[in-house]
Amino acid sequence: MQTDSTDICERLCNKSIREISLLLNILRLTVSGSITKWKQLGTTATQPRSGRSQKMTERGQHMLKRTLHISHQLSAESLAKDLQTSCGLQISTTTVHREFHGMGFHG
Fold it and tell me: Domain of life here (predicted)?
């Protein structure tokens, strides 16, 4: 017996969204969205996001913040070089500026 999503979809195709919602005990909006996604993509799995992933990891952000607290008068360029030597991250000064702004540091 098949128990994948296509089998479940075939069994529930003759029911209304409201009936499926009551049967599965989930919201009608969720059922409607899942059915729409199934019809458009052929799957209900999460699709990969568009865009580039972030360059700075959480560890890099933590190191940047710690370095800033230790010596808060360093330039963004020297902080970027320091991170390159300590973490091995190849980041630009613009990325350092962006991360500081994201952390709430300005100036």
Answer: Eukaryota
